[in-house]
Fold this protein.
Amino acid sequence: MTDEVTSRIRELNDLARQTFTGCRVMITPGIQALPDIDAVLRAVQLFDEFTENNDPYGEHDFGSFRHSGETVFWKFDYFDLDFTMHSPDASDPAVTARVLTVMLADEY
């Protein structure tokens, strides 16, 4: 993958994660059961602790943090616009439906 494509994917992922626009946001039952869902979702939006260990491809497509004693994961998946197959090009929003899933680590 070229640096330009990676940069575009990272840009789209950051925008979607920070604003919850341009994607579908899914929360798992474990997140839904937490008393402070809004705080968890805000932490996802503010996440900026990307390293080579948690972001080896530089796409900002995964994160992990601690919240109220729980480890929370968030991740992006890229589908075609019909949600039937993987996106043919995650850098192109015209052919990609982004899904941001927020879950407890033990739900992964």
Remarks:
- The two ends are 27 Å apart (CA to CA).
- The longest helix spans residues 3-19.
